[in-house]
Structures are given as C-alpha cells and as structure tokens.
Amino acid sequence: MQAVFDRSYRRLVGQVIGLTRSRAEAEDVVQEAFVQAVARREFATMDKPEAWLLTVALNQARRRWRRGRHFLGLLPKLTEHPQRHDSAVDRVALLTALRALPAPQREAIALHHLADLPVAEVAELLGVPEGTVKARLSRGRAALLPLLEETYEDSPQEARHA
C-alpha cells in the first residue's frame, strides 16, 4: 500500500484538482480513496490500483459537489425574509437548535425538512441507506424537541404569538 501511495498520491491529486478546482478538496478526496483502498482486501491484488483510486476519488468529488449544490439550494429557503414576526422567531430558533445537532442529523433534517427532499433522495445524496436517513431524522427530531422547547420557555409569550 505504501508503494502505491508514494507512487500515485501526487499524480492523483493533480488529476482530481481539475474536477474540484481546489488542492485541499482534491487532497481530501484522494485521501478518502486511499482509506477505502485500505478497507478492501482485494486492493493489494488489483492490476491497476491507481486507476481504481482515481475512479473512487472522482466519484467522491462528484458526490461532494452534488451535496454542496443541494446545500446551496437551501440557502434561499433559510435566508428569505419571513412575512410574519413569529416565523422569524421560529426560523432563528430552528437554526440555532440545528447547530447543536451532530452533522449527520443536521444534514438529514435540512435536506428532508427544509429542502423538501424525499428520504430516498436524501439517502442517495448522502451516500447512506434509507434506513440510516430515517434513523438520523428520528434522532434529530427527538434532539430538536427539547432544544426548541427550551428556546420558547425562555422567550416572552408576545414573541411567540405576535
């Protein structure tokens, strides 16, 4: 594995930069490809390990690009100006509570509930099984409930019903 790394790493990063347009991003996806290679027993016997690594790195870069594109699509929904005062309070409370969640739960909730994506599409986008997305949604909603209740217990009654 070390010999493949020494021989291929710089060349792979150079090739992936063309897709990512970022050296740091290219290094990340190439490193992720090597991590996947370590987990595969058959990697040591492959005829063209560098080609396999390049394919994995490019797929990883594409997956990150698609995920980023979907998150950029969320920005208008999260930043558009609410029409009523109580929706502004709700929006701030929700965004504050979401920041307290672990990233996987936050991503699942944002994509499913804020971007209105179906569970199957969220699973594909995140590269996890649908059951994992459902579990993250369930755990995330359960974790949000006390955070949001705490926010509303601390806020004046008028702010909630203005």
Automatic annotation (TrEMBL):
GO terms for biological process: DNA-templated transcription initiation. GO terms for molecular function: DNA binding; sigma factor activity. Signal peptide: none annotated. Residues 5-69 form the RNA polymerase sigma-70 region domain. Gene3D superfamilies: 1.10.1740.10, Winged helix-like DNA-binding domain superfamily/Winged helix DNA-binding domain. InterPro entries: RNA_pol_sigma-70-like (IPR039425), RNA_pol_sigma-70_dom (IPR014284), RNA_pol_sigma70_r2 (IPR007627), RNA_pol_sigma70_r4_t2 (IPR013249), RNA_pol_sigma_r2 (IPR013325), RNA_pol_sigma_r3/r4-like (IPR013324), WH-like_DNA-bd_sf (IPR036388). CDD domains: Sigma70_r4. It comes from the Bacteria. Belongs to the sigma-70 factor family. ECF subfamily. This is Sigma-70 family RNA polymerase sigma factor. The lineage of its organism: Bacteria, Bacillati, Actinomycetota, Actinomycetes, Micrococcales.
